[in-house]
């Protein structure tokens, strides 16, 4: 993606934290000569070789998986909070814009099978069940329920390149920067308020 130098994020730890916090992404590849995209959780994990990979699974009913063995590059897109920024919030005339964070991950995809599938599902369920009153555990599911795993294709994406952009009004002076945060907070819109919270991290 196009990333102006001012908004380029090359902090590996910040990117890693972002991917873990915004794991519901879009997996994009070319299937039968057509671009294909699926919205799914893509979890940043370490594989059996100790490499950082993205783990995920899709339904076997989804034609996208039929191209996974072609060894072509795939793209995973992740986005964080975003918000419209009104020019009325500045102390001078300017144009409207949008604040957002995004990470693009490029890599090669590999189908996984056997115990690796159950391990991947266990990590996924444990992550999202941790705050439940009665957490579900994969190991406690019945054989009948686990039979449904036959209907999925699990995979890992070996990461080849990461492009990250954090556009949070870095080009504004302190006065206008603070005013943008204040105006975002007034909207009471969850996305806008989340952007305000992100912006507050960069300038005190």
TrEMBL record:
InterPro entries xrefs: TR_PAI2-type
The record's section on Pfam families has: FMN_bind_2 (PF04299)
PANTHER family, sorted:
PROTEASE SYNTHASE AND SPORULATION PROTEIN PAI 2
Q: What's the protein here called?
A: FMN-binding negative transcriptional regulator
Q: Which organism is it from?
A: Flavobacterium taihuense
């Amino acid at each position: 993606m196009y990333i102006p130098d001012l908004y380029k994020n090359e902090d590996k730890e910040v990117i890693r934290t972002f991917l873990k916090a915004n794991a519901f992404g879009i997996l994009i590849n070319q299937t039968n000569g057509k671009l294909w995209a699926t919205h799914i959780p893509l979890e940043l994990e370490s594989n059996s070789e100790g490499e950082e990979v993205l783990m995920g699974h899709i339904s076997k009913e989804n034609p996208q998986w039929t191209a996974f063995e072609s060894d072509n590059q795939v793209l995973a897109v992740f986005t964080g909070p975003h918000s419209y920024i009104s020019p009325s919030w500045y102390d001078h005339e300017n144009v409207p814009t949008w604040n957002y964070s995004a990470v693009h991950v490029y890599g090669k995809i590999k189908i996984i099978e056997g115990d690796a599938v159950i391990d991947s599902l266990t990590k996924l369920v444990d992550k999202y069940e941790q705050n439940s009153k009665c957490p579900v555990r994969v190991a406690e599911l019945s054989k009948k329920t686990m039979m449904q795993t036959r209907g999925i294709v699990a995979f890992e994406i070996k990461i080849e390149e990461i492009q990250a952009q954090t556009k949070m009004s870095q080009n504004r002076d302190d006065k206008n920067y603070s005013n943008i945060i204040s105006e975002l907070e007034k909207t009471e819109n969850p996305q806008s308020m989340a952007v305000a919270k992100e912006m507050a991290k960069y300038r005190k």
